[in-house]
From TrEMBL:
It is found in: Cytoplasm. The gene is hisS. One of its GO terms (biological process) is histidyl-tRNA aminoacylation. It catalyses: tRNA(His) + L-histidine + ATP = L-histidyl-tRNA(His) + AMP + diphosphate + H(+). Homodimer. Residues 13-23 have a biased composition (Basic and acidic residues). The keyword Translocase does not apply. HAMAP family: His_tRNA_synth (MF_00127). This is Histidine--tRNA ligase. GO terms for molecular function: ATP binding; histidine-tRNA ligase activity.
Length: 493
């Protein structure tokens, strides 16, 4: 495309927006707000307090996301302050917490238990279900070294997912620990960072490629269907069997999985320490009443293990949905967390134990919308304006309804009655109020229950019968209007 083709036509600006920054309409906005309310209610019930650290942080506080000091814009959106210091929109809600804890120092009592909800921004390539701006809802405990703190995060995360409507079998939180995997890597002689990373990447593909495909990636490598070859980790046959035995040790219960892992992790010190971590978490999960189906120990969880220092957990939606293409698929990951004891140390030089759980609110809202779980929001009662010269009657009726606590609006366009009715339908109005010359003369209003009218209309076979029956339509004195409308709105709710 030439420079000329890319210019706005006729001097007008192009109506366009950056990719990855979705526009949200009322249904999704309310679904998202409802999720935040339900999740944070669980966090507060468990004793966590709210904290808002603001959208911007100094770019160097975001640590590993900075590529260089000259232009820190890879992974984050950044700008220079008036004192020439780089600031960046927060990449997540955890790095700002670490900065807050470091700044507060000894004045902040520990353990410090906080929750936060808000948008985060990532300067990454957007794609289906992958946005540059999205909402997260986190809870973190800073200053608690025991693994019962991790178990609390996991059990609370499961309870939060149940609070937003997830049932048994529709979600799972998978738990693993970095130390257990380190023990396996040590046991198979994976000493170099390159080999260890290749093993992690191979295990991360277990769900998609299966045992055979991952075995190839753990060994010499694998050629995919397109003919592209991926170099493997270079493990021998026995080492591949050891790693796969570890990754596939999951069983029906947490106790059975732990027994399988005890056999698969060998006798390394790291392996023993990791197994002890998971045993402590499993014991605490039992005490917290976390159902076996909600939380499983799954050694195949490897995402984020470069970041976390101990246990790691991932929340996944299991319910299958049918897309527009007719294919059935799973939504997948909608949250997770883990232990990150080294994060505050970036600022203070001292290790501060910390663990947290994050739910991807935007991703969860989109998932629920796809699954048809967000529901249809009722719009306002619409008061038709049949007197274009003097809309006072319509305006005063709408005001009366609002004073009674009923959401209402007077029609503000210049169209006739039929387009006004279509407008009310588009607004998902529960009812319309009609006041023409006859109603004004009699001191009445006509109310049309749009939901009841639509249901009754299905049984009517002719236009003549429809006009005579006027389904869902009643006429009441103006003084009785508010209560009549209220009954309709409450019945539909």
């Amino acid at each position: 495309m030439s420079d000329k083709d890319s210019q706005p036509l006729s001097g007008k600006d192009l109506a366009r927006k950056p990719r990855g920054f979705p526009d949200k309409r009322e249904g999704l906005i309310h679904a998202q707000a409802d999720l935040v309310g339900k999740v944070t209610a669980i966090y507060r019930q468990w004793g966590f307090e709210a904290l808002d650290t603001g959208a911007f942080e100094y770019a160097d506080a975001l640590g590993k996301f900075l590529p260089d000091d000259d232009r820190p814009n890879a992974g984050v959106f950044s700008l220079q302050d008036d004192d020439e210091q780089w600031m960046a929109l927060r990449y997540d809600l955890t790095a700002p917490l670490a900065r807050f804890v470091a700044e507060a120092g000894q004045s902040l009592g520990k353990p410090f238990r906080r929750y936060a909800a808000g948008p985060v921004w990532r300067n990454e390539k957007p794609g289906p279900g992958r946005f540059r701006e999205f909402w997260q809802c986190d809870a973190d405990t800073v200053g608690a070294p025991g693994f019962h703190a991790d178990a609390e995060m996991i059990a609370m995360g499961a309870e939060a997912l149940r609070a937003v409507g997830m049932e048994t079998g529709e979600f799972v939180i998978r738990v693993n620990t970095r130390r257990l995997l380190n023990g396996v890597l040590d046991g198979v002689g994976a000493s170099s960072a390159e080999t260890r990373l290749a093993i992690l990447r191979a295990l991360d593909k277990l769900d998609r490629l299966g045992s055979s495909g991952v075995a190839d990636l753990l060994g010499k490598g694998r050629m995919d269907d397109s003919g592209d070859f991926t170099k493997g980790a270079g493990l021998g046959a026995d080492e591949v069997k050891t790693v796969l035995a570890f990754a596939e040790a999951g069983a029906k219960t947490r106790a059975e999985t732990l027994a399988n892992l005890s056999k698969a992790t060998g006798s390394t010190e790291e392996g023993k320490a990791g197994l002890a971590e998971l045993e402590a978490i499993a014991l605490a999960l039992d005490a917290l009443g976390a159902p076996e189906g909600d939380v499983v120990i799954d050694p195949s969880v490897v995402r984020g293990l470069e970041y976390y220092t101990g246990p790691v957990y991932e929340a996944e939606l299991l319910r299958e949905v049918t897309g527009d293409d007719g294919k059935t698929y799973r939504i997948g990951s909608i949250g997770g967390g883990g232990r990150y004891d080294d994060l505050v140390a970036r600022f203070t030089g001292e290790t501060v134990p910390a663990t947290g759980f994050s739910i991807g609110i935007s991703r969860l809202a989109s998932a629920l919308q796809i699954m048809g779980e967000t529901g249809k929001l009722d719009g306002p009662v619409v008061v038709l304006n049949l007197d274009k010269e003097n809309p006072s009657t319509a305006l005063s009726i709408a005001a009366d309804l609002r004073r009674a606590g009923i959401r209402a609006e007077a029609y503000m366009g210049g169209s006739g009655m039929r387009p006004q009715m279509k407008y009310a339908d588009r607004r998902n109005a529960p009812a319309v109020v009609i006041v023409g010359e006859d109603e004004v003369a009699k001191g009445t209003v006509t109310i049309k229950d749009l939901e009841m009218g639509a249901l009754k209309a299905k049984a009517i076979k002719s236009n003549e019968e429809y006009r005579e029956a006027r389904p869902g339509q009643i006429e009441v004195p103006r003084a009785e209007m508010v209560e009549a409308i209220r009954r309709i709105v409450e019945a539909q709710a």
